[in-house]
């Protein structure tokens, strides 16, 4: 559904951001796109949506060449950007103006999502709402488009703790086997129970693109080495219960994935992690 092959891109030609980056994402999954500040996560999302043009390589989204931004592709793709622009329109007028671009937009779902997020469709002008309220309206709208591909950049920024819980609930209910959801975030704690695929971007390449099942098959997230003394330790961090470790899961022991620990382990041990998941 989304296929990037040998992508080259740089804002300055002498300092490429992406070098032969390749990535495939399939429907029926919620991907968590992780990376350091400046790694190019937002740029990568914009390349997928045709808002940035690669210097080399191909970007195929829904069997379309993404840079061409054909209507049949765009009506099945919604991109919620972190930097939100909202017009001087009331919520109802915003929906009236923009929903027709998405043939599968469901007004009843939008009303339900707004209710779940404790927002009133009769609220004032969108550009006068708080940052969190704007984000909630756009999340509700994004889900109600029912596009085949839904891309979100830092969607939980600006949401309070109860709203983050509602967001996870709504995302889980909106996911299905025909839909691809991509979420780029630094707030990994907000997504640990939601995503089922993890993609880590580092130094112009995809360091990791694996399912949460495959990750916990190959890596053990353990405290104080109590479950197994075998396997290479990739990362250790002190916590109130002892030393929390990420190690090679040589004995195939079940453990709970910790996205933050995974990210740290992968960044510190790039070659070893890449080889482990080849």
Can you put this structure into words, describing what you see?
It is built from nine helices and 13 strands. It has 278 residues and is α/β, with parallel strands linked by helices. The chain folds into two domains: 202 residues, P-loop containing nucleotide triphosphate hydrolases (Rossmann fold, 3-Layer(aba) Sandwich); 66 residues, no CATH class. The strands form three sheets. The protein has a six-stranded mixed β-sheet, sandwiched between helices. A four-stranded antiparallel β-sheet has the order 2-1-4-5, with no helix packed on it. The protein has a three-stranded antiparallel β-sheet with strand order 11-13-12. Helix 8 crosses helix 9. The two termini are 21 Å apart.
Biggest beta sheet summary: 6 strands, mixed
The strands making up the biggest β-sheet line up spatially as: 6-7-8-3-9-10
- Give the structural class: alpha/beta
**Could you list the spans in which at least 5 consecutive residues all have pLDDT below 50?**
none
Tell me the name of the CATH class of the largest domain.
Alpha Beta
Task: Give the CATH architecture of the largest domain.
Answer: 3-Layer(aba) Sandwich
Strand content: 25-35%
CATH superfamily of the largest domain: P-loop containing nucleotide triphosphate hydrolases
